[in-house]
Amino acid sequence: MKLIDGKKIATEIKQEIAIEVNKIIENGGRQPHLAAILVGHDGGSETYVAFKIKDCGEVGFKSSLIRFEDHVTEEELLAKVHELNNDDGLDGFIVQLPLPKHISEQKIIEAINPKKDVDGFHPENVGRMVIGLPAFVSATPFGIVELLKRYNIETSGKNCVVLGRSNIVGRPMSILMSQKAINATVTVAHSRTKNLKEVCKNADILIVAMGFPEFIKGDMVKEGAVVIDVGTTRVKSDKTKSGWKLKGDVLFDEVAEKCSYITPVPGGVGPMTRVSLLLNTLLSAKKEIYK
Ligand code: GUN
Questions:
Q1: Does the 139-270 domain belong in CATH 3.30.1360.30?
Q2: Going by CA atoms, what residue is nearest to atom 9 of ligand 1?
């Protein structure tokens, strides 16, 4: 079994991005600039956004954090989105989800200029990705494809099972895996799938994005499979300083014995998700998606 070291690959990519940023500036361009809108004070969202801001600093991007309280109105948020859409000094921005219940997430996502939608959530980017046009692709699937490439994992003609069908992970992941550059034969499995164990056992590449900690056991995985674990459930732990630890959707010790490659949690997909937002912002700064 080989461990897929997402942390190491993400560090390498960050170094590559930093070199690109230096080149842009040497050639008289401006620093790539990412903004994040954060509504309220949810602990998870605060952490994710803080990471995004920190990551920007590490590669030489400018970053801006725009905060609103939970009681912000949809109109106020839409006004900010329009302002950022028209800000020529900004390459991309994200609105951290989830939003408070009184705000329509879909309405906010659809208000974002697709050319600045570095999360890849706007229907225009999703549609472009589906038909194989250059597009901002949501960060987790983008990062997983990059991991498979950098580990030279054969995908052509392989059976790929994606567990989960969310708009930001499972669904786009399944589309990317079936595209011509990757050429896998894809099955999307979900909570209503029958004979899930058999479906999983058929996978040469198993990508698990369900959010059920340690759901995938050793007897659900084919000998020699590649297993990608997207799960990140926080569970209480008395063994860590923070009092909690991250658990993946895969029972690591059992599954690792059987597979050819596996991503750990933490240190697998997570760092690649973070670096993919930087890659999308760089693509936007270089006008490589919408030319
Ligand atoms: N909430 C959880 N993941 C994400 C993400 O990738 N982008 C945004 N904007 N919100 C999230």
A1: no
A2: 96
